[in-house]
Amino acid sequence: MAGEVRYEPLPLPDRVQVPEAEALRAAEAFRDHMRRRHSVRQYAARPVPEAVIVACIQAAATAPSGANQQPWHFVAIANPAMKEQIRAAAEEEERAFYADGAGDEWLAALEPIGTGVDKPHLTDAPWLIVVFAQRSGVTGDGVRHKNYYVPESVGIATGMLITALHHAGLVCLEHTPNPMTFLPEMCGRPASEKAVMILPVGYPAEDATVPAAAKRKKPLGEVMTVFC
What we know:
Layout: H1 20-34, H2 50-60, E1 72-77, H3 80-101, H4 104-110, H5 121-124, E2 127-134, E3 136-138, E4 144-146, H6 150-167, E5 171-172, H7 183-186, E6 193-202, H8 220-223
Helix pairs in contact: 2-6
């Protein structure tokens, strides 16, 4: 988008302000709803309508970004063969990681989470959403330009996507594809884009579990400082 748009101030198009008491109720209700979000590895066979996935991605795409460059692309995959290929590559990486790629400290940190080589969620989930970061973009007249604040912008959009999925009653799991260099070609994306996250998405299985360690959250005093 760089070079296509000049600065032009617009009156604020949307105002969502509410009275203070209502704001507190809304903030606390949203906090309590987000406390019910869990990263899930076991998925039900129940299908998820494509329209739901589209709406969640549309919500994520409203995220703020550096210079409004919107350096992201989301690829939603329901194709079984593509999911199988992604799972095979992920498990190959994991075998190398657990064999000799990770240090003892990192493996010890992962142990309470219960992760391992097998990644059945990558084929069991009805959808995989691959999040791509665009290191550069192209203007309408074909001129390539560098994107700025890409990790920060894509991170915000991914967080909004996870939140939107939870709001829709779905669960997901955050899988980081490193390197999985075949993903851009498989998904029809240019070499200037890097896959930074794979989200298996669906409904939780009846016997779905979460690691007990995941329920331990830092107290407020460790994650917040206030200056008045």
